[in-house]
Amino acid sequence: MTDRESVLQAHLSMWRRSAFVWGSSDCMMSIASYVLDITGHDVGAPWRGRYEDAAGGMKFVEAAGGGCALMDNGLTAIGLPRVDIARRGDPVCAEIHGMQIGGIYLGPMTAFRLEGRGQIDLRVKHLGVWRL
Fold first, then answer.
1. SS3 39
2. Per-residue pLDDT tens for 25-75?
3. Which domain holds residue 62?
4. For 62-91, what is each residue's pLDDT tens digit?
5. How far is CA 118 from CA 20, 26, 83, 87, 103, in A?
6. Considering only Cβ atoms within 10 Å of each terminal Cβ, which end of the chain, N or C, has fewer?
7. What CATH number should be reported for the domain holding residue 84?
8. Closest CA to 74 of 127, 33, 23
9. pTM, 2 dp
10. Residue closest to 130 by CA, chosen among 65, 80, 93
């Protein structure tokens, strides 16, 4: 495995064995932590530890203009380009149950963390893809 693949596998393993917790291991913070471990840039720093429930998290999402906009603001700021086609390990944004959430493309499935459901892998249309 490459270093990137090792980081991906470590995060997926952690997602499967740990709980979804708002503000530390929710969908967006999980992506921020994954990106941090690969790039050394903490795109979640502006909101890390600043909310503890869905309402608090949604304040940051709404202020950014949605989940995909929140991801785009952070990921492009550290130099990750938006691309049209995802490759394994790329952070992505998709709409699940009416909400824009972050995930990791696994090819052909995408891994997400959902409150009360843990990690789920789905085939979805990506609204945003960033090359990691």
1. helix
2. 999 999 999 999 999 999 999 999 899 999 999 999 999 999 999 999 999
3. 3-129
4. 999 999 999 999 999 999 999 999 999 999
5. 6, 9, 27, 23, 12
6. N
7. 3.90.1720
8. 33
9. 0.94
10. 80
